[in-house]
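Inverse folding, one chain.
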């Protein structure tokens, strides 16, 4: 048990690791979200290969480090909650393998697109950036929405189901929402990191996309109220969270229209943190919901490792985490300047 002095709060290691895994996934969507958004925007904002190169360069120093958050989240899940990991990764084996292959293709494209100065070569790799950037956030949105919606999990923690058990109107709506959120996030990021024509086009598209994103966000919240039990169990937290979530989204559009891009980006970060975080809040203390029998739910208790394993992991994590965060902050500070056409043409 972890005792927090100053208040009468006791936090178990099971709860601590659930929070840490939630933070890792939230960090992944926050950081990799703008990566995905920029990748999608290469087909909607850029007019030629030079502009695509500029856009890719804005995420070049960060994309591989951002994906580490996903790897770390998966590793933490495997070590802290092996039953959660086993049920999730076996039940979603096909979409998760597809995601892995898409991420491999995307990473390869970043490294190879500039190796040969030929339109067909760069054009092929540009599609290898765009398609995974579009599909990966959609698939993650489907997966996380399915976790909240409920899945056919039996008493032995095995997941059984047909295609419609995982892909249905609610999970598709969740996938669309996450995809739109990442695209909007990437467009606002481009307003921060580029200038002139690219910045102007990214701002214009973001303004138009805002209304679609706002409609999808409100629809997802309303549908979640009717088809899930998260409001019934965590309504006291979720009602104010979603109210602030919608307000932050509106403020991001307001700041964007006033060309206060830093504030707009900050507000959109808040939207991602609240949106993804709310799904974990709605799940807690469950990690996977069974729609066969609530007794089959996987929780932070029946899916967890032993106390000794959690204790050792906690010591290691708290020791290494400050260094990882410090390195990330330093890299963003070093590459904080805008990427311009003039500088790009020099290399």
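Residues assigned per position:
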């Amino acid at each position: 048990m972890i005792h927090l002095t100053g208040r009468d709060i006791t936090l178990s290691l099971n709860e601590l690791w659930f929070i840490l895994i939630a933070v890792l996934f939230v960090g992944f969507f926050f950081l990799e979200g703008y990566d995905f958004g920029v990748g999608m925007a290469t087909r909607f904002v850029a007019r030629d290969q030079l502009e695509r190169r500029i856009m890719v360069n804005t995420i070049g120093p960060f994309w591989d480090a951002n994906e580490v958050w996903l790897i770390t989240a998966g590793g933490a899940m495997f070590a802290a909650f092996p039953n959660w990991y086993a049920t999730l990764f076996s039940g979603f084996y096909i979409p998760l393998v597809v995601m892995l292959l898409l991420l491999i293709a995307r990473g390869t494209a970043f490294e190879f697109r500039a190796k040969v100065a030929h339109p067909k070569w760069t054009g092929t790799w540009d599609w290898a950036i765009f398609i995974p950037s579009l599909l990966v956030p959609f698939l993650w949105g489907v997966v996380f929405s399915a976790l909240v919606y409920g899945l056919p999990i039996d008493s032995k923690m095995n997941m059984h189901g047909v295609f419609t058990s995982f892909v249905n109107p609610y999970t598709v709506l969740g996938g669309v929402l996450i995809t739109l959120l990442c695209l909007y996030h990437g467009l606002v990021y481009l307003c921060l990191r580029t200038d002139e024509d690219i910045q102007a086009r990214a701002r214009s598209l973001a303004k138009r996309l805002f209304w679609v994103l706002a409609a999808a966000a409100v629809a997802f919240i309303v549908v979640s109220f009717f088809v899930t039990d998260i409001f019934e169990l965590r309504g006291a937290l979720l009602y104010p969270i979603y109210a602030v979530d919608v307000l932050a989204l509106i403020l991001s559009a307001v700041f964007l229209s006033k060309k206060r891009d830093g504030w707009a980006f900050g507000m959109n970060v808040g939207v991602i943190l609240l949106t993804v975080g709310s799904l974990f809040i709605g799940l807690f203390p469950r990690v996977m919901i069974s729609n066969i029998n609530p007794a089959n739910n996987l929780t932070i208790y029946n899916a967890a490792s032993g106390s000794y394993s959690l204790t050792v992991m906690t010591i290691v994590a708290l020791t290494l985490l400050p260094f990882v965060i410090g390195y990330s902050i330093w890299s963003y500070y070093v590459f904080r300047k805008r990427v311009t056409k003039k500088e790009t043409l020099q290399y």
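Residues 196-227 form the longest helix (32 residues). The chain is about 75% helix and 5% strand.
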